[in-house]
Amino acid sequence: MSNKAAKIGLSGVVLATAFGVLLYSSLGESLQYYKYVDEVMAEPAAWHGKNLQVHGIVVPDSIARKPDSLEWRFDLQRNGKVLRAYYTGIVPDTFKAESEVVLTGTMDDKGFHATEMTAKCPSKYDAAPAGPTVESSPAPSGGA
Amino acid sequence: MATLGYYLLLAAFIVCAYAGAISVAGARRRSRPLIESGIGAFYLVSAIMGVASAVIVYSFVVGDYSIRYVQRYSDSVQPLFYKLTSYWGGLDGSIMFWVALLSAFGSAAVYINRERHRELIPYVVTVISVVQMFFLFLMIVHNNPFQTYLTETPTEGTGLNPLLQNFYMAIHPPTMYLGFVGLTIPYAFGMAALITGYLDDSWLRAVRRWTMIAWLFLSVGLGLGMIWAYEELGWGGYWMWDPVENAGLLPWFTATAFLHSVMVQEKRGMLRVWNVALVITTFFLTIFGTFMTRSGIVQSVHAFGDDPELARMFTIFMIATVVVSFGFLIYRLPLLRARNELDSWLSREAAFMMNNWILLFSAFFVLFATMFPTLSEAIRGERLTVGPPFFNQWMLPIGLTLLFLTGVGPLLAWRKSTVVNLRDQFLFPVSMGLAAGIAVVALGVRVWASGICFALSAFVIGTVTQEFWRGARVRQRATGTDVFTALVGLVGRNKRRYGGYVVHLGMVLIFFGFAGEGFKQKEEAQLKPGQQVAVGDFVIRHDALSVTDDGQKQMITAHVTVLRDGKTFAEMYPAKWIFRKHEESPTTEVAIHRGFAQDVYLVLATFDAATQTASLAVDINPLVNWVWMGFGLLALGIGIALLPDAAFSFATAAVPANAATTALILLAVVLSQGVTLAQETVPAIFRSPLERQVANEIMCDCGGCRLSTESCGMMNCHGKERQLSKIQQHIKSGQGHDAILASFVREHGGYDVLMQPPNRGFNRMAWLLPYGVATVCLLGVAFTALRWSRRRVPAPAAPAIDPELDARLENELRDLE
After folding, report:
1. Domain co-membership, A23 together with A91
2. Which of A47, B165, B449, B817 is most buried, judging by how many CB atoms fall within 10 Å of its CB?
3. Distance from CA of B249 to the nearest CA of A (A)
């Protein structure tokens, strides 16, 4: 009986370790740091090249768009710190001055290069049926 | 009305407590009348909840805006249908709806099983009552849907968010709730079996059907959610691994596992501990999912806001659930010894065990990845997230393995498969799979995951076909009818098995649709009239941009021709609608051209009316519709499995309802017109520290978020600006921090405008009260139950009273005075 228990225990441990190692190694590639603009701008150079999600507010009058293209440039700010961001693609309806957005991408000296943009707009869902069942999907985000 | 409603909730709570306590007492004293009384009280709860529901629905219909909940989630112009569905439109009402459904489900389960499982029923009543008490308690102390305005009554409601006023939003939440609530029933029976020690397989028989019903609702609910995301949100996909979506998926995994492992226990008497543990885990995950989305521990664009108070209560309840449930499980381990051991890994039970482990691992993985940001913040102090690619990377091999096992399981014999029957059974399905695999390679499919998925789909279809065919042949020979009649008879004889196979076919279709994702093509382009863009086999030509106005809204419509091989394939009209007075939030009207092979999915993203330029997002989504068809087939399969006994009417109702639902949703999407409330935004950037501090301490007025004014993240939040401008006025007039808070309390008529009641003096009571009340209630119930359940010892015969002695005593007492 104890022999059997030991066998089960052992295989359990081996399996758990194997999956743990797999999980850990696969995590490395897909990890994204979730940061607010001011946290990133405290030491911008440290974030160069890292997968990053930045959360901030679009600075009014900073939105610029290359004519006849889908290339955007704008500033994000939080607590007075400002980050320049570049994004190519279709922006969500809710993207405009002072909207709260979360950008996914990487940073370099020029600023933040976003590959994905989500405009935070829970007001659409605030009256959503509560609970686990609230259907929920990302805010319409053309870039996603 | 509000008072009536509130008292009804209180009454429901008390009756629940009574039902729970008297049932325990009745069971321990083996007193039939006490048990009957408990059952009666339990029915009474559902009646009370029915009346309470009627009260709130009535308030919605007549527009009783003195009730906050009614005021926040409806208005007078709302169509009647949406006034009714506003019931579960917000947090407080949805909890109440939850309790109402649970009491109705519970009563039905108790009614059906009251004779057959007499020994379990009292504890089933107790367990469900305790769960109801928790939710009722939440409403009574924290989320009372009948809360009224203390100050003057508003004359008009805020209105249910127009985006939610579509048919989908009316039907999806109740479907999910039914699934979640339904899963409480198996838990209650499992616990009853643990408590009483009647751990033979009878509790399983009682809950099988309930688990299937719950599973059906859960699956259909998830499917409806996907359809909605796909058609309403305009981002081209249907699953995003959002925490709120995942919350619905977690119990689905464990419930699926349970539906399979039940069979192993029935046939072989194995996995008995496992099954109880699965039922407990499933129930726990339904509660945990609720907790995750409502307490704000997981950041999601869609989750409800932070609510530490609610989080605390849920945590306490969850810990109690885990401790009590698994405590009983450990206590009863000796009774749960398996009657058999695994004979061979080449057996059906081994395949089921694999399937169970994988499903459980899926649940664990999704839970882990969903909670990852929270976990990393707690452990490393740094918020790290993982995106959908991480989920896909893991769930893809997991899903394919599950699909493979779907085909393998039915082919293996119970106990042990011999080499001969392996060859006999696997020959046809495997050759089907191989043929499909070769065809896939020959056709030049280069996406390996999708290729494997197609081959596995063929394998599973082969398995199912073979099962039906062989069964029908055997029956045909035995009864001498034609094959078709034999088939119907076969299914009728073993509905659960063959219904299950139909569900498997549904899953194959769903996976077939998933595999199409591998060939998805998308493009974004800025087009002037006459310009075109090629996406896959299609050429999308922008012809013109028209601006029309129907008085209510301005409609900017792109006229797009889709060409294939130089010929016109379709004309499509993606649009943006800009509603009067809501110019800031245009709505996106997706244009979808459906097909068995693919959907062409067009979104008009931005436009320039002057130059007629439109930027279009084009998605070619292959095989999407197979997913929806798969869900339909899945519902049909469960319907077949549920057919026996009284469920016939239910099945006939559920299946067409589902098909009709899909059709209606399509219609609703075409007709629905989401409008968001537009408001000017207050410059939220340069503000004084005082203003920030105050804004952090005062609750946002928007109704749903329960966040502070500062942290309410809604962009067009209509409550936030109001509060912020008030705060600014107060600061301008030179008031200090305390004075501002005081004037808010005065104006609002209560302390609940503050995020936290001032933590001093009398108000400290407010912190302790809920916990105090809860403790007292629990102690009271436990005490009563114990007391009632003490067997009455025949009292020693009263000594005959001597009249003389009595008189003397009387005299002496008088003298004492």
Report:
1. no
2. B165
3. 9
